[in-house]
Amino acid sequence: MKNSVDIRTVLSVYEKIKTQGVPTTNGMKLEDVTCTENPDGYYVNLADNNVSLDINFHNTYHFHTANEDPEGIINQTTADFHNNNEAQIQEFLHKLMEIDKRY
After folding, report:
1. Do you know which Pfam families this protein is assigned to (predicted)?
2. In the chain, is it the N or the C terminus that has fewer CB atoms within a 10 Å radius of its CB?
3. Closest CA to 99 of 42, 33, 4
C-alpha cells in the first residue's frame, strides 16, 4: 500500500467518533464511520462500508477492503484490483480527515 497514515490524526478522529457519535450494535457511529475497540484498549477499528482500518498497539495498522481476494474478482486485472482498493482506502482516509475538520 502507498498509504502513509498519520496515526495521531486517526486516533483523534476515533475519539471524536467515540464521544460525539451515536451508539449502534457495532460500536459508535458518526456520519458513516463506525469505531470499535477491544476491552483492553490495545486495538481500535474504524470502518465504513468499504474499508476497515485496524490500529494496534505501538501504532501499527492494517487496512481491509470490501474485496480482499483478487482471485474472487472477475474481469479485473491484478493492477485494476490494487488500484480499486487503493482508491477505496484514499476515499476512506479523506472521510476521516473531513470528520477531524468538522468536529
Report:
1. DUF3081 (PF11280)
2. N
3. 33
Cell numbers standing for residue 93:
482516509
How far are the Cα atoms of 18, 34, 56, 75 from residue 21, in angstroms, in the given order?
Answer: 6, 8, 22, 39
Give the other-Cβ count within 10 Å of 30's Cβ: 18
* Cα–Cα nearest to 44, from 12, 22, 69: 12
CA dist 82 and 86 (Å) reads 6
**For residues 70 and 33, is the Cβ–Cβ distance under 8 A?**
no
Q: Between vectors from CA 24 to CA 93 and to CA 16, what angle results, nearest 5°?
A: 45
pTM of the model: 0.82
What is the SS3 assignment for 33? Answer: strand
